Amino acid sequence: MTPEITMALAGNPNAGKTTLFNAITGSRQHVGNYPGVTVEKKEGYYERHGHRLKIVDLPGTYSLTAYSVEEVVARDYLITEKPRVVINIVDAANLERNLYLTAQFFEMDLPMVIALNMVDVAKDRGISIDEARLSALLGVPVVPIVARTGDGVDALMQAALERALAGQGRKNAAISYGEDIDAALLQMQEVITVGSFMTGAYPSRWLALKLLEGDQQIIDQGRAGSPQLAAQLAAMAEAVSAHLQQTLDTVPEAIIADHRYGFIKSIVRQGIVTHQFDENRLYTSDKIDKVLTHRFFGPMVMVAVLMGLYHFTFTYSERPIAWVGSFFNLLASVADRLLADGPLKSLLISGIIHGVGGVLGFVPLIMFMFFGLAFLEDSGYLARVAFMLDRVFRIFGLHGNSVMAYIVSGGIAGGCAVPGVMATRTLRSHRERMATLLTAPFMNCGAKLPVLAMLIGTFFAKYQAQFMLFTTLLAWATALLVAKFLRLTILKGESTPFVMELPPYRFPTLKGLLIHTWEKTWRYIQKAGTVILGVSILLWVMMSYPGLPNGERETFERQRQTIVADARAGAALAGDETLRSRLAAVDRREAEQALEHSFAGRIGKGLETITWLPGFDWRTNIALLGGFAAKEVIVSTMATAYSLGAIDAEASGSLSEALAADPHWTPLLSLGLIVFIMFYSPCVTTLSCIIKEAGSWRWGLFSVLFNTGFAFMLATLVYRLGNLIW
Amino acid sequence: MARIMLRTMKKDQAGTIVAVKVAGELGRRIREMGLVPGTRIVIQGRAPLYDPVALRVMGGTLTLRNNEADMIEVEVDD
Question: Does this model's pTM top 0.90?
Answer without folding.
Answer: no
